[in-house]
Amino acid sequence: MAEHVRIKAIYPPGHVRAPYYLRGKTGVIERDLGNFANPEQLAYRHKADPKPLYRVRFTMAEVWGDNAENPADTIDAEVYDHWLERV
Amino acid sequence: MPHDHHDHDNLSPSGHPFRPDNDEPLTYWQTMEIALREILVEKGHLAQADITAQIDAMDARNPSHGAAVVARAWVDPDFKAQLLADASTASRDMGFDIGPMHLVAVANTDTIHNLIVCTLCSCYPRNLLGLPPDWYKTRAYRSRAVSEPRAVLREFGLNLPDTTTLRVHDSTADMRYIVLPARPAGTDDLSQGELAELVTRDSMIGVGLPRQP
Questions:
Q1: Among B52, B82, B119, B205, which is least packed by CB within 10 angstroms?
Q2: pLDDT > 50? residue A4
C-alpha cells in the first residue's frame, strides 16, 4: 500500500530544495533514500542535521490539473521528510 | 554582401563577424575564486598542477562511460539488476571513478519512458557522463521538462505514443539520474562494445533513443 504524502504549502525565505511547483501537491512515496544532511542548514555553513529523504511520485494531473499534457504521466522528486505531511 | 554591411560594431574591417574580447572587469566571485586559489597555492595546500589535473579528470569523463554501463546492462541481467538497485556501486564495479555521487538508474520499457531534469539548478550525473549539454541548464528546458515534457520530446524528434507512460525525474536533492534506455531491436548479434556505440548521451537523459544498428 503506497504511502500518500503532501508537500507542505509553506513559503519560507532562504535556501530550500522543495520545488515551488510541488508545494501543496499530494503524491506517493516511491522509495526511501536514507538520511542526508539538511541543505537548508548546509547552505549557510551551519551544522547540518541528517534528514530522511524520499522520492515522491506525483501524477501530472495532480501537479498541473486540466493543463496536464497526459494526466497519467508522472513527476518524481526528492523531498526531505520535514517538508512532508502524511495524508 | 558582408562588405556592404554598415553595422561596424560586430564586423571586422574585412567583414567577418567577431566577438569582442572579454576585457570587462572581474566580478566579485571571480575575484574571490582567484584570491582563494592563489592563497591555497601560496601556502602550499595545492599546486597549480593539481587544479589542472582535476580539470583534466572532469573533462575526461564523457558519455561513453555511461554508454559502457548501459551496454553491459543490456547483455548481463545480473548487472542490470544491480544497476537498478544501486547504480553507484554498479558503476564503480565497472571501474568508473564517480566520486561520492549517488546515482539512480531508471529503466525504459515497452510502456515506460523516463526523462531527467533538474528544475532547481542543473544537477547532472557529471561524474559518470561528464559536463551537461548547455540546453540542459537553460530555464526553458528546466521548466518545460516538467510542465510540457511531451512537447519538449517532440522538439527533440521523439514522439511518445499515448500508450507510453512518461516518468519525469526532477533531481531536487542528493541523487543523480541516468536513463537505462531499452535495447534496440535487431541487435542480438552485436558485441557489448558495438552496443555501447548505439548509446547516445541524449538517450541517457531521456530526450532521445539509442541509435539503430
A1: B52
A2: yes
